[in-house]
What does this fold into?
Amino acid sequence: MRVSTSKHSHSTRTLASSIWADFHNRRDDFPSTFNTRLLLRWIQDAVGDVEDTNGKRKASPTSRVTRPSKRTRTEAGLLERTQTSTQQSTVGKDNYPTLPKAAFDTQSALAEEHNLIPILNHSMCLYITDEQAATNSRVAANTANRWEEANAAFWAYMISISETLSKPMELDLGSIHFSTFHGRLVALMDGDSPEDACDEWLFLVPQLNVDPDSYDYRARASDLLMSSYTLQRHGCARVQCNLKLIVQPGQCNVPDLLSLILDFAVLLSIPQALHPSPPSGSSKKGTKNTKKVIDGDISLEDARRRVLRASLELDGIQSGEMDDNISLSSFYSLIEPAPAITSSLADDALQPAGLKAKLLPFQRRTVAWLLQREGKEITNDGRIVDRNPTEDFNFWTRVDEGNHGWYFNVLSGEVADGPLEYSPIHGAILAEEPGLGKTLETISLALLNPAPPEWNPTVSRWDPTSKLHVKAVKVRD
It folds into this structure.
């Protein structure tokens, strides 16, 4: 199982118009990276209050605390406990769009007989800042003022907590739900039950992208977390997410004060993940209308290939640039000459008797390599024989996780539960530079390894251009 981490930075002041061009100069713009009003309320639920030695109410400096009971924040910024959900729903949404609840959760639990195999564990560290971002917003002044008040209250509260600490404090905020908005994952608050799940925007989840052109992914499939949830949507995996808040002690600068830790684990479902296509029944009642929202342009094959290649460390977790950008000089550095010929008799045998032109040494090495790609080899005494065993390249590799093993095609993303039988792959691409004698080498190959008699076509025609009888090509079955 691959264990990895990534670091990200988001400002509480970043607006949707800074991320999506569709929101430029719109009145429904909103602070897209964090809903500070909702995040503050959730943190207050997790922190709780305790009496200090002076009788004042301070945040608990314990190293790890969990959520006690539900509370809401009044307009004055004070805390008061509540037993109803009505007050919670009256908190201003500040232009935040309404999103489907738990859109990515599987609607039916994976069958108990399915084995869940952990293949990937990633920790996403999101540093929270208060940097002012450029904006093209046209929201009403009262809405913008509410944003500033919520942002100021959030930072004032977090700084007050920090001042009481002698060591970093870790708050376990619990699990979260996800939905999508304009092609991005959005974290939603999790309730204690499905009926209690809140559908309010919590924060915009950073992307874990690799360059799609480098790995031949569709754009959205390059996001690792988005692809992981696509697998869950099809019942091929389970994704477990947990959110923590780290508060640093003392007089820290704002960029160093807070960080959210989003831990997610991907568990592959066996044998469900080995199905070549989505299992029947994956579009049960309640899920049919969410397929477009969830998957978008992500196919199951792309999602599975993205997740499995990342888990096997064939691809990176995240990359902002094109990987393996090959220049002309780096390309030439990868080129090697054909293997040397092992004996003088073998070297002499590579000069076809029917060829008038004399092959140069490097051309004979190329012809020997071409013979190997056609399943032949030349012995030290100059005989051309069948190559046994044939060492053919293929894209299937065996994967072992715990007590389970399967086979993964690193090119197509297919998976199988057992070794596959495949026909030997012959042939090659002869891509030498112009003028080095590719035509001559190919003619030599045909003379040294002619087609067997059963392949000899019986139909021929006269070609007036070449002034030869040209036989029809017979395709091998």
